[in-house]
Amino acid sequence: MERERWERVERLYHAALELADNERENFLEESCSGDYALRREVESLLEQENKAGEFLEVPALEKAANALGRGQAGANKSKDEDTLGIIGRTISHYRIAEKLGGGGMGIVYKAEDTRLGRFVALKFLPPVAHKDPIAIERFRREARAASALNHPHICTIHDIGEHEGRQFLVMELMEGQTLKYRIASGPLETAEIVKMGLQIAEALEAAHAKGIVHRDIKPANIFLTERGQAKVLDFGLAKLLLPASAETTLLEEPLRTHGPIGTLPYMAPEQALGREVDARTDIYALGMVLYEMTAGKRPFREDQSTRLIDDILHKMPAPVGRLGAGTPDRLDEITLKCLEKEPAKRYESAQELGSALEEFATASSRGEILKPSRPRRWYAKAGTILGAVLLVGTAVGFNLGGWRNRLHLTVSSLPIDSLAVLPLTNLSGDAQQDYFVDGMTDELTTDLAQIGGLRVTSRTSVMQFKDTKKPVSQIANELNVNAVVEGSVVRLGDRVRVTAQLIETKTDRHLWAKSYERNSRDVMALQDDLARDIANEIRVTLTPKDRRRLAGSRSIDPQAYESYLRGRLFWNRRTEEDLYKAKGYFQQVIDKEPRYAPAYSGLSDTYFYLGYGWGHMAPREAMPLAKAAALKAVELDDDSAEGHTSLGVAMFSYDWDFRGAEQELKRAVTLNPNYSNAHHAYSVLLGVLGRQDESIAEIRKGAEVDPLSVPVRNMLAARLAAYGHCDEALAEDNKTLELLPNATHLGMLHSRMADCYRNQHREKEYLEEWTKARIASGATAKEIEDFRRTYAASGRNGVLRKDLQQQLAKWDKSHWHVDAFLIAMAYAELGDMDQAFAWIDKCIELRSTMLFWLYDGHGPLRHDPRFAEVKRKMGVLE
Which of 117, 143, 172 is where one domain is finished? Predict the structure, then answer.
């Protein structure tokens, strides 16, 4: 069979598949136009389809596909044939057990995941399409779209792979049947209709919040598990919500197709006309599914496609109650509202539709719906009393889509006083936009963090969950918050669309979802609107100052804003190369938008790290620039917690203006109690000033809003260890290793743990941690072996002397202000106080930004009379 011929067969097969049996003959008579061979091919496939099996749609297309792949002889083989010849083989780490079935876009096998010890389903493209780039791209689209969703009523996509040129998906294995075959046995009971409708609506709500429209909701794409759960299948036709000016999808390059994509009997009018679709298009399709579940058939004649399209565009379905089904009026009203011709007249969102179904279910359970449902078929034998019990029991016992919890919570909602903005998903189809999407996450976090009375987790901790598959409840538990914001960003040209949803994590209750679209210049106003809406939704009290800030009209040159986001991206990486890139981007912002305060704060922070030891700039060169930039940030925006923090850090780490620095940092933590950098810096300053309890309390506040930040957790343990609380310090460090075992920059942690073990005379643990510290700092295997040999021969002092010799040999070549401090500490450890203080004087002369570490521990130094002179030179007041 030639490809063109096969494609025509496939189109007719799928079109006929959606028609009732008594409507197919007229359809084929019209569509095949006297081509009897063509008609026989389609009818042959339909006969195979009628011998339905389980899982997805049935293997009807396999026969024709096999004929194309292996010759006509293959067309006569059994539907149970191992089409790919892989049963019993292991592909990747999946051992193929048996074939389950297939459809036009996939052949499905049951397989064992040998790594995780579970059974999964592998869905392969059929042979007819494995060289078709459009089919392959649709297949990949299904993976990308569905894997972005994590919901109990959406078929989970675990993985995607390729075997001998054939793409495959790895999906959860389900047992049961499609809703299509459930409906084939007759209309469903009212309770079951509401239950299924709610579950599908919840699935769509989750998809729409990610910016994904399914476009092909129909009974064949809804799977009913043996446990009575609905699962939405096949996001291969999914389309991202687009800005109004967009001409292509943003998930991938445009797919060229002939006419609208979807299944005609379930298409909304705008979809049938090939116009833009949105979430309300899926609402229409779900309405058609509700109608079909209720009536046992669809509302329009389908013997001719032209007549069907005309009905879709112009005819309202007759209420199901008029067909004699005994359907409650309210369920009819809900269904018909979904099926309105104009999208604006339908339910605005799947959440709104779900609420309507929940209210109906609640009224039904209370006996407030007086009109009876249709006579019960298989319940009838148990009598009407049992039927009533089952109806109420289903509503309450199955907890229809969570309605019982939601109903309860509308009366006594859990208070929301803490939340995290999870990393937004980049749905632009361009990995180069990741920096922009991450930046949007940061900016939304910053906006929310400045609202009083709300604890918002800092960026550092939240970004640990980028691309994670962990459930929202687990993430919330690790971050210690009771709500999360999740969503997606689509960027096309100068248009930006953000879709977000707010979830109460203890109940998995979706409180609110909304989409925002703006020009790139107005992206900050978009963020303000989103932050204000979230604050209003959780009923956080906004001060007049909060309202003024969020209501203000902020705009920025799109290129400047893009440079700012890139600057923060590179600044967060903290390598010398990345810091110089950040510096360049922040300067670009200032050149274009000289009154944009965050750019100056970013530039100040960059200069600080370049002069602190992450770069080769001398403190005398870098720190005045850091202070000047911070002063400018505060001048432009005196309410900027970031600006005041940057200024405070410059003042105490270089100017040694501790009083002035404290004023700046206290202002910063007041302006934004959720800014962990401010708590971090203030804790360091309090330690220098000898206010130990306050220092520990301040860094604990930082850990509350940034619980997964290695620098913050490091500082907390450092404060505890410095002030003699070694057991607590070790507990914090072990917790850090448990939470963040693969984090970078853990050398300081292991070194501190080694010191604590040494103070406790635990020699074995001390040596293990000191070794780990060197490994974490990049030591080679040979260097580790040398270290162990030196330690065995001459103990800790022998190792310190060897390290000191190496440090002295290079101190004037790189990082000299850092090396001077490390050399001073090495001499102090060896007990040579004369040399230690001589090198501390060098640090003072160099204005080393490392000097504030003198105030953590270092007992021999701090008890030496000469330490008072060091404090006098630095202006440290007792």
Answer: 172
